[in-house]
Structure prediction request, 371 residues.
Amino acid sequence: MLSTFGHLFRITTFGESHGGGVGVVIDGCPAGVELDIEEVQKELTRRKPGQSILTTPRQEDDTASILSGTFEGKTLGTPIAILVGNKDARPSSYEPFKDIYRPSHADFTYQAKYGIRNWMGGGRASARETIGRVAAGSVALQVLREYFPLEVVAWVESVHTVGPAKVDLATVTREQVDKNQVRCPDTEAAQEMFTAIDTARREQDSVGGVIGCVARNVPAGLGEPVFSKLEAELAKAMLSLPAVKGFEIGSGFAGTHLRGSEHNDPFRMSRGKVVTTTNHSGGVQGGITNGESIYFRVAFKPTATIGKVQQTVDEQGEERDLAARGRHDPCVLPRAVPIVEAMTQLVLVDAFLMQRARAGASFFSEKTGQN
Prediction:
């Protein structure tokens, strides 16, 4: 199983939903970076369960422990291991259907691939695995901010048939996103989204939706054509997340409705820098960042675990009816916002370190005018 992501800044996540704990090992983090564990914990708290009636009632503190790789508040350049214990695991809740393949879960496919699976809450396929990603993403952001004032903000753009929300890509902040339980900065849309999620919850059902994300102040020159183009790495990162079924950057599929004369982003000069007058490219051209804000959208399917009766089969091939029990989110999007941000930061730190390795320390000062 490939549980490692990244090239120079590599992360390996470990653990299962109802095992002893989950976490991440970060390899390739530069030495001497001041690492604030409170920032890591803040992001884990944004992701943790039990935040509202819109999320799973599982109660976990998700307190992070850094086991290695730091000394006196700074990174050593050696592997950083971060562990989060599972405190509210209830594997017995899943025993009644341990031999049943839950519809749209990874039960059947894991069994088909490995010949064995952990049936307790999804095991390795559980979204609890993303704790390691969020912790590592916070470290990545702290590394990048040593060089430039990166801002990565994600939000819930639509839920089921509600949306898209009205969001200003140039000014939206995490504080605005976090002001309500849905994590949508458009207050009116957020209220409608809340109702849609809560209605599905009450009806023992679930809904999906779209998360938007913007990365601002990204320097031009990041991305490794042709197979590690920046948007290709972002797509891989997002599609590796549980429940994600779609990714588009910039104009995305809507761009197919435009002509080239409408879709091209004209260049101009502003304060001695090359900029574009529009951003249909989503900040990436030729697989390389052009200095404009990166903007993309991620589609999440409805949560697979629902209380409604569904048709399935068991390991013996017998047809069964299943009304799944367990603690689950009626909509994964509110808790997925910090996960999308974290994966974006992991892609950017890796791309940045690769470009620095190629161009040397002069890369950053040449591109941004800073040291």
Q: What stands out?
A: Residues 4-368 form a domain with the Chorismate synthase, AroC fold fold (CATH 3.60.150.10). The CA atoms of residues 236 and 247 lie 9 Å apart. The radius of gyration is 21 Å.
